[in-house]
Amino acid sequence: MTSLQTQVTDAVQRNVDLAKQLQEAQTNYNECLDTIWMLLAAVLVFFMHAGFSLLEAGSVRFKNAQNILAKNLLTVCLGFLSWYTFGWAFAYGTSDDPGRFAGYKQMFMDKTWDTQSTFRNWFFQGAFCATAATIVSGAVAERIQLRGFSIFTMVMTTLIYPVVVYWGWSGSGLLLYTSKAGKSVSFLGPAYKDFAGSGIVHMVGGVGALCGAVVVGPRKGRFENTGEDFLPHHVPFCVLGTFCLWFGWYGFNPGSTLAMHTTGSANTAGLVAVNTTLAPCVAGLVVFAMRALVLPPRRLDVCGFCNGILAGLVSITAGCAFVKPWESIIIGFIGGLVYQTWSMVMQTCKVDDVVDAFAVHGATGFWGVLAAGLFGNEKENNDGNGLFYGGDQFRTQFVGAALIAAWTMTCSLIVLVPLRVLNLLRASDEFQDLGADSVEHSPRKAHAVA
């Protein structure tokens, strides 16, 4: 009898040990799967800088192609270093008793070694940070000094963007935090919804671009009858850059599930990928058709087609996980109209935005945030709460977008205006006539043959 009891006890213990080993193996498997997924997505987002570089290099005149490439390289390098020093801490450095404005822990990645899963989050979110900053470079191309641009980039990636991230993505900010009842809420009631950053990333970059374009002023002769050609010098670069950005967006949006070890996260990523495909198709065609059939000079505008595609991508980025595919088509359609409208408004107001950064990222980013408050059915179990389905999400989306725009604009002007006064921002007319490549780069031409 004693022997039998011993055997039973040993068998029970073996089962307990096996259960522990199985649980440990499952935990390790989930961790590895999530890390692989996020690193892949982060690499795709990082690759978007190749797209920005091609698009912006093609959009400027030949004499400034090398200079805009230098700005893109600087943005990535300065952006990640700023993210390392204070940016991550302001964005995600929450405490046990967090405030609602900004974080402050883990500056210079302090104590992240204790929780090494932080590394994948740092890299993924850092790629987003650099993306928000590089949106500005195209808007102010051809007439901004490199030193002034570098200073603004550091402020954008150290303070402006990280604070907005804390508000909407940290889980402790004023637009998204956990109530005492354990529900996700904001100071307005419903929690702010911006799945991959129409407002948090793109609108921040777009509003910063608008401020930069206004403060630095238009390129010499841009709105004068001088006969000088300000059209893109390399349309193939613009198209290739657009495809690179679209490709990278499949890391930007689906990767924002932040996990891939459950059926739910996998299904969400699939839905997001579908919506990230449909919306830009519709938006691009809307802009292409309008410029070909309605708007003078009624020609096939390939660069306009590219910007329409990007506008559709920005429009769907906030609500891509909450809406059905047919809703994404509507969002993309309206996004194309929003882009075209604001592109014309900028021209009418004589704001020289070389790549239409505000119209593409700022205006349609605002629309994307609002769309997440209009579409998405809560009964479909996809975290939707749209006004069209009886939800109360819209007020949070509208106020949240307005708050993000106001913060970005205020901080940007505080930095840019003094730089302009101190002559650290705008390049001289002579500099612009000669071109940045000839004045300050070696070699003096981006291509061997002009």
What does this structure look like?
It is a single chain. With 450 residues, the chain is mainly alpha-helical. The protein has one domain: Orthogonal Bundle (Ammonium transporter fold), CATH 1.10.3430.10. The protein has 13 helices and 4 strands. It has helices spanning 2-59, 65-92, 118-139, 146-169, 198-216, 235-252, 263-293, 302-317, 325-348, 357-374, 394-421, 429-434, 436-440; strands spanning 172-173, 176-178, 184-186, 189-190. The chain has a 4-stranded antiparallel β-sheet with strand order 1-2-3-4, covered by helices on one side. α3 runs parallel beside α5 and α10 runs antiparallel to α11 (394-421). The chain is globular, with a radius of gyration of 24 Å. The termini are far apart.
- Share in helix: 55-70%
Number of strands: 4
Distance between the termini: 95 Å
Per CATH, what is the topology?
Ammonium transporter fold
Indicate the CATH architecture: Orthogonal Bundle
CATH superfamily: Ammonium transporter AmtB like domains
Order of helices and strands: HHHHEEEEHHHHHHHHH
User: Which class in CATH terms?
Assistant: Mainly Alpha
Count of alpha and pi helical runs: 13
Radius of gyration over C-alpha positions, nearest whole angstrom: 24 Å
The quaternary state of the protein chains shown equals single chain
